[in-house]
Amino acid sequence: MLQRVLTCIWIPALLALISACSPNGVEVVSETDEKQYQLAQDFKNQGRTEEALSAFLRVIDARRDAPESHLEAGYIYLRTMKDPIRAIYHFERYLQFKPQSPQASQVRQLIETAQKEFARQLPAQPYEGDLERIDLMELVKTLKQENDSLKRDLVAAEKRVSQLENVLGQARRVPRPQTEAPAVVRREQPVRTDGGTATPDPEDVPRTYTVQSGDTLSTISRRFYGTPSRWIDIFQANRDRLSSENALRVGQEIRIP
Length: 257
Hints:
Strand order of the largest sheet: 1-2
Number of domains: 3
CATH architecture of the largest domain: Alpha Horseshoe
Distance between the termini: 123 Å
CATH superfamily of the largest domain: Tetratricopeptide repeat domain
CATH class of the largest domain: Mainly Alpha
Number of strands: 2
Helix content: 55-70%
Shape: rod-shaped
């Protein structure tokens, strides 16, 4: 009999202890008992609004559900910070957590007030005469969608311009098609001072070559010397004709040292 009585006393006590603890064995503290929440209320009562807001936001960051902190943050954003968009966000979060609370109707009115405040902040107050007939949040949503669409169009246009610039640059580098002339390699005959024709020394007389389509100094060097590495010799021999190593023109005659 005594054991049964003890059981009746012990089991409710155990259940009460379990209900006061979270699944991880950590004591569950209500939002309004949070140290940061109480600190925020102290700051608010002292007129230290920004510090109060920071403390309320810390409660929101630390908890999954913090409707009272959302409500307080919404008040501060609307009344003190004059930031109706953030105020609307926190008021709507409050309604998500407590849609049937006694304050829900008042919070919905605060959302309408914040919407009107947002409209008044727009340039030239374009909606001042029709505030009651405008769904401002739908307007904000529409403008944001249009802005995102314009950003995507701008990115696509910039990409297209870049592609066209690349195509134009490649077209400028391609030489105009010309009738390919046969390669001409001839030896220049030195003129004797006495009026006769001197017998040239093959090692001293430079050869000439007519540039073909697709030629580079490296390919010409390979053609005559069997290696592309002597392109610099060809370039140095034609400094009076070539402004750079890439300045070859089809049909141009160059010296082969």
